[in-house]
Amino acid sequence: MKPRLVILLGPTAVGKTDYSLALARRYDSPIISCDSRQIYREMAIGTAVPSREQMDTVPHFFIQTRSAREYYTAGMYEEEALALIRKLFDQGHETLVMCGGSMFYIDAVCNSLAGIPAADAGFREQLRARVAAEDPGFLARELERLDPEAFRAMDLSNTQRLFRAVEICLWTGQPYSTFKPIPAGRDFEIEKIGLMRPREELYDRINRRVLQMMEEGLVEEVRSLLPLRGLTALQTVGYSELFDYMDGKTTLDEAVRLIQRNTRHYAKRQLSWWRRDPMIRWIEI
């Protein structure tokens, strides 16, 4: 029998962390994170990284292993995650647990992103400079102009992916949506488990988790990142709203309300994305 990778996915705040710990203990497996924000060291509170106690209970990979200053893509994650998975299987694990909610990272592990081109570093830096000189809606408008199909499917709060899509459109002269992940024959079995809750319960958990982040010091974490606010990694829910508060564009109460609303919208987009995948076995918890 082939070794097996169990991918635990689901919308933000559904309860993946606790469930993944139980799965990992069942299979005597570490947990391989596939979260595109928890990978950054500077963003602990706003990305709800597992607690130190949880990470001491079960070894975790790809949690706070990169700096937000670094350029990092789903393609780079694919390469690193596959190398780790094969290493762990070679060490004798029969089943491994992967957990997270980043749709593109999960797709990268299940399929190959090798068919999606990359611009050279000089072109990328030119585009970054242009983005920095424009208003915040520039990337979304560019993608809508260059590739309406990708624009309709894009999570516009994921600035890193938005940048990547515009970069590919401009670099290749072709719409981003014409470059699809290539179905890849992996040398291990893949099982996908999706967690869900009734909508009102999920939304209540999201609202309460945002309030908990505020109590844990999210404002102070975001304030410490003000010098880095232009980085792609920080153009994300929970950070953008508090940067606006610090600029005097909104009150703190309004910023909290917007974080809750935008997180609920993100959860809805996650579920819409995964509904197209018949491989997922859904469990209501």
Could you characterize what this model shows?
The protein is an alpha/beta fold and 285 residues long. It folds into three domains: 4-115 and 186-198 and 278-284, P-loop containing nucleotide triphosphate hydrolases (Rossmann fold, 3-Layer(aba) Sandwich); 121-178, Histone, subunit A; 199-267, Crystal structure of tRNA isopentenylpyrophosphate transferase (bh2366) domain (Helix Hairpins, Orthogonal Bundle), CATH 1.10.287. Helices cover 49% and strands 12% of the residues. It is built from twelve helices and eight strands. Strands 3-2-4-1-7-8 form a six-stranded parallel beta sheet, sandwiched between helices. The chain has a two-stranded antiparallel ribbon with strand order 5-6. The mean pLDDT is 91.
Percent of residues in helices = 40-55%
CATH class of the largest domain: Alpha Beta
- Mean pLDDT score: 91
CATH architecture of the largest domain: 3-Layer(aba) Sandwich
| Order of helical and strand elements | EHEHEHEHEHHHHEEHHHHE
Strand content: 5-15%
- Indicate the CATH topology of the largest domain: Rossmann fold
| Main β-sheet description | 6 strands, parallel
Task: Report the C-alpha radius of gyration, rounded.
Answer: 19 Å
Order of adjacent strands in the largest pleated sheet: 3-2-4-1-7-8
The assigned structural class equals alpha/beta
Please identify the oligomeric state.
single chain
CATH superfamily membership of the largest domain = P-loop containing nucleotide triphosphate hydrolases
What coarse outline follows from CA principal-axis ratios? globular
Number of domains: 3
